Amino acid sequence: MHNPTRPYHRLEIDLLFNKVKAQMHQRALAKGGDGIALYTDCYTGETLRGGDRYDYEHIRSSEAVFMKYRDRLTNHEIAEVVNCPENVSVTLRTINQSKGKMRLEDWLENANKVSNHGINGVLARKALANAEMGIQRKVDEILSRKL
Asked: For residues 29 and 36, is the Cβ–Cβ distance under 8 A?
């Protein structure tokens, strides 16, 4: 039985996040082809190269996912959900810091932030929809293992 009121806990999330980031970095190095990582910003569509100030980003925040599923999933299972491939991407550090823990759809409602950061609204909403589908897919997969 899971404690449906347990407090937000990141240990397992961060351990798996570090592994996911290392895998993403290896793929980005291969994509770059010259020993420098090559990414595409998930909110602007701009090319990011190793050395740029970028962050790995949970599109749907780890805290939001934890709070939604803590009554059904263990901390380890929540870490799997949070770090599913569809929910982890790369964006400029300034965007990640501006967004913080805000829900992406709420952050996108601020026209000044969208404009100041060069956000492509269509691309950002597509990333969010993809993250939501990946999260649901992973939750369904985990719950089906428990049957």
From this structure: yes
Nearest alpha carbon to residue 80 among 68, 62, 103, 102: 62
State pTM to two decimals. Answer: 0.93
- At position 136, the amino acid (one-letter code) is Q
Residue 58 backbone phi and psi in degrees, to 5: -85, 115
Q: Say which residues have a Cβ less than 8 Å from residue 13's Cβ, sequence separation at least 6.
A: 62, 66, 75, 78, 79, 82, 83
Residue 47 pLDDT greater than 90, yes or no = yes
At 109 the three-state DSSP class reads coil
Torsion angle (degrees, nearest 10) of CA 52, 89, 96, 54: -10
| Count of helix runs (H) and strand runs (E) in the chain | 7, 4
pLDDT digits (tens, 9 = 90+) for 72-115: 999 999 999 999 999 999 999 999 999 988 999 999 999 999 99
